[in-house]
Amino acid sequence: MLSIISKHKVLQSRLGFKLDQFYNILVSLILLSIFLLAYSALQRPINTFQYQQIIRLSEQASHPRTQNMAENVLQQHQVRRVEYLKLLNAYQFESNRIRQYPAMAKEDE
Fold first, then answer.
1. What is the pTM of this model?
2. Which residues contact 48 (CB under 8 A, 6 or more apart)?
3. Mean pLDDT computed over 62-84
4. Residue 37 main-chain phi, psi, to 5 deg
5. Three-class SS string for the chain?
6. Residue among 106, 88, 92 nearest 46 (CA)
């Protein structure tokens, strides 16, 4: 009776180990495919609406660093989404930074 129980546990442990390996490999493949899809999405070119936004950012003067970055992006032959997202991130960072330091009033001078 004891040998039957121990054989059953050994078979379960071997099967469980193989099943765990299968699940680990499956999760790894899913994560790898997600990363590959995200990378390929970032390498695609932008659409016309996003290109117009870059032109608008390059013409504004309220955020000079973002303006310079937009002008540099426009000089490229083909603009990828990763550069567009970096530009939007820089614009948001500069906008938040400007809001933190308001202009001084004339009375404060």
1. 0.65
2. none
3. 89
4. -65, -40
5. CHHHHHHHHHHHHHHHHHHHHHHHHHHHHHHHHHHHHHHHHHHCECCHHHHHHHHHHHHCCCCHHHHHHHHHHHCCCCCEHHHHHHHHHHHHHHHHHHHHCCCCCHHHC
6. 88
